[in-house]
């Protein structure tokens, strides 16, 4: 068993090395945007204090800055995942890697190597930002004022669950929309930041919290960003497992179909005929696999429908 586990070690090491570069790219761009927002805020406040004729913004991030941060992180993940998803899967997150491990998409060796690479990528990105940009690094995550540790854990858990579930349903689960998964993954991170950045910093990723902490120092609440995302990965895996167990694809069949025959029928025809076709009956009439009758029946029915419409 141990031999089979390490059979693909060479490829796992290659993938992990590229996962390191991808994570570094993602967090360099994303955290760089957060640093830019903080630096801009500090510069504005300083200029206003010196009578520079500009309006000072709240030292606590304004709505514009929160939106800037959310866009920065969301777009950074979108771009990075799209660049690497055919190479390593574009995971960049130990919580996502854990979900992929639990559903069997990756093996335990690759999971361990990915987690190490992602944490190292977080450190590398933070160190690069400290070297490249002026001023201290101010991209660490801490719970906001009046946010308890328990609240922070569950906020991180739910936000991470949303991200992991998006990855499982759109990337791990193969279908026609899979090539567009990076867009949805980036948008999910964007939405998560809109909700959580003011409360927890919206890490949703232990590597994102760990890297800046190594460079700038650990806060006493740093454990939140290990426990919360881990719970989130378990939640997402449980939901995905349930969906697979109930054969979710049968609940709304042919959603990915390109056959226009499966589109809803003409509303006027439906009203005049007094019938209400379902997606399942449409699939049967269209001759989809496992549905029974052929497309000739549906073609003749369409002809009847067109004649009925012409008489209305």
UniProtKB/TrEMBL annotation:
What high-level taxonomic lineage is stated for the organism? Eukaryota, Fungi, Dikarya, Basidiomycota, Agaricomycotina
Query: Which residues does the annotated region (Disordered) include?
Result: 284-312
Any one GO molecular function term: water channel activity
Q: PANTHER family in the record, alphabetically?
A: AQUAPORIN TRANSPORTER (PTHR19139), MIP17260P (PTHR19139:SF199)
- State the source organism's domain of life: Eukaryota
| UniProt-listed InterPro entries | Aquaporin-like, Aquaporin_transptr, MIP
Organism for this UniProt entry = Botryobasidium botryosum (strain FD-172 SS1)
The record's annotation in Gene3D superfamilies points to: Glycerol uptake facilitator protein (1.20.1080.10)
Gene Ontology cellular-component terms for this entry are: plasma membrane
User: Which one Pfam family would you cite for this protein?
Assistant: MIP
Name of this chain's protein: Aquaporin
Bilayer topology annotation: Multi-pass membrane protein
Name the family: Belongs to the MIP/aquaporin (TC 1.A.8) family.
Instruction: Keywords in alphabetical order, please.
Output: Glycoprotein, Membrane, Repeat, Transmembrane, Transmembrane helix, Transport
Membrane-crossing residue ranges in chain numbering: 66-85, 111-133, 153-171, 183-203, 223-243
Q: What is its main location?
A: membrane
UniProt subcellular location: Membrane
């Amino acid at each position: 068993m141990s031999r089979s586990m390490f059979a693909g070690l060479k490829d796992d090491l290659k993938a992990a090395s590229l996962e390191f570069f991808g994570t570094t790219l993602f967090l360099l761009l994303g955290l760089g945007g957060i640093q830019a927002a903080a630096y801009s805020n500090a510069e504005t406040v300083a200029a206003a204090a010196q009578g520079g004729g500009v309006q000072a913004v709240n030292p606590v991030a304004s709505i514009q800055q929160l939106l800037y941060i959310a866009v920065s992180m969301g777009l950074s993940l979108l771009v990075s995942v799209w660049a690497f998803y055919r190479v390593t899967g574009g995971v960049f997150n130990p919580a996502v890697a854990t979900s992929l491990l639990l559903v069997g998409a990756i093996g335990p060796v690759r999971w361990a190597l990915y987690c190490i690479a992602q944490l190292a990528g977080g450190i590398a990105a933070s160190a690069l930002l400290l070297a490249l940009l002026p001023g201290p690094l101010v991209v660490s995550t801490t719970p906001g004022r009046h946010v308890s540790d328990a609240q922070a854990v569950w906020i991180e858990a739910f936000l991470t669950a949303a991200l992991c579930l998006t990855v499982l349903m759109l990337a791990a689960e193969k279908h026609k929309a899979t090539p567009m998964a990076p867009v949805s993954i980036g948008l999910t991170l964007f939405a998560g930041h809109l909700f959580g950045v003011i409360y927890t910093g919206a890490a949703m990723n232990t590597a994102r919290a760990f890297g800046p902490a190594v460079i700038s120092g650990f806060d006493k609440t740093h454990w939140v960003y290990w426990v919360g995302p881990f719970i989130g990965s378990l939640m997402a895996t449980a939901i995905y497992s349930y969906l697979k167990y109930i054969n979710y694809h049968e609940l709304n069949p042919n959603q990915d179909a390109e056959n226009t025959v499966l589109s809803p029928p003409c509303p006027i025809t439906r009203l005049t005929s007094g019938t209400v076709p379902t997606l399942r009956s449409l699939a049967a009439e269209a001759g989809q696999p496992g549905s029974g009758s052929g497309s000739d029946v549906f073609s003749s029915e369409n002809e009847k429908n067109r004649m009925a419409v012409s008489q209305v």
